[in-house]
Amino acid sequence: xxxxxxxxxxxxxxxxxxxxxxxxxxxxxxxxxxxxxxxxxxxxxxxxxxxxxxxxxxxxxxxxxxxxxxxxxxxxxxxxxxxxxxxxxxxxxxxxxxxxxxxxxxxxxxxxxxxxxxxxxxxxxxxxxxxxxxxxxxxxxxxxxxxxxxxxxxxxxxxxxxxxxxxxxxxxxxxxxxxxxxxxxxxxxxxxxxxxxxxxxxxxxxxxxxxxxxxxxxxxxxxxxxxxxxxxxxxxxxxxxxxxxxxxxxxxxxxxxxxxxxxxxxxxxxxxxxxxxxxxxxxxxxxxxxxxxxxxxxxxxxxxxxxxxxxxxxxxxxxxxxxxxxxxxxxxxxxxxxxxxxxxxxxxxxxxxxxxxxxxxxxxxxxxxxxxxxxxxxxxxxxxxx
Length: 386
What we know:
The protein is an all-alpha fold. It is built from 16 helices and no strands. The protein has helices at residues 2-6, 10-23, 27-37, 41-65, 70-83, 86-97, 101-125, 133-149, 165-168, 180-209, 215-219, 221-237, 242-265, 269-296, 303-333, 338-363. Helix 2 (10-23) runs parallel beside helix 5 (70-83), helix 7 (101-125) packs antiparallel against helix 12 (221-237) and helix 13 (242-265) packs antiparallel against helix 16 (338-363). The radius of gyration is 21 Å and the shape is globular.
């Protein structure tokens, strides 16, 4: 909506959603490898958050003051290159320091969602839903977050020294894919991320078409349900089989876009907002429970890299391909087709989510006692705590 208000084309909009995941494909693994092998994770977090904030500010400054999108896109990409590892590293710090990850992770992770809700409400309350001021405000908050990282628990490296370019870039984490269930989960996360791109790109546009003015606030219904599901995460993870939990999450994703299609066919904002609410359950029970699942199957010296690999697969490669796919679908099915185009568009994406569920249901076996990925030979790091 900000780019539309600026008058920039749909092509520029697509590049704005492609560049961040594209620029961040390799950096999460490389920074995570540093956290696993060389530097404390909390200090690496400070660098990526505070450092990335500079480029985030510059991107939105040029968005506001320039009619040429080139510098906006360049600095947006640099920001992503620097800051893409943040969520994976933050997750690794949490999972390394919590006593019972299954029970406690949800109540820890929920604060990220509360921050997202606060951001959406603040943007709409200030009336800047279509203003570049949102990005500049975000850069200021990110600087504060960077300094807050210095107060996180000390999380020293637990892996050995780098043994070559593969380990330096974090490619040692690929060995987790030798486990069938992990490989199926990573494949499903990749496939599920393709239609997910439409949630961020096109839900705000449909809401605006239906006359919703406070779009940023309306989108936080997804985070309200995410708060609920995160608070329930510890309860369900110790009582439900993981396969059932992940299938339930994919089912919520199917229902989300199915409601979008129904709401589009009858011009019902209420039904679409119920669909937005389903996003929180789909996201939390698939991606957040999956992070705990992945962490339990790797040795401590590979934790940050494995979380980064999941970020690369879903938020990197999956997001890039998803942006391209849903962008083409949007141009062919929605542009110039009126409300009926939205219905067709969301029906196609609903089918993609159903296909993802079938892949997971057939491929994932579920093991009572998951095998540990073979441990990487560890070379002691001078000065690191045992």
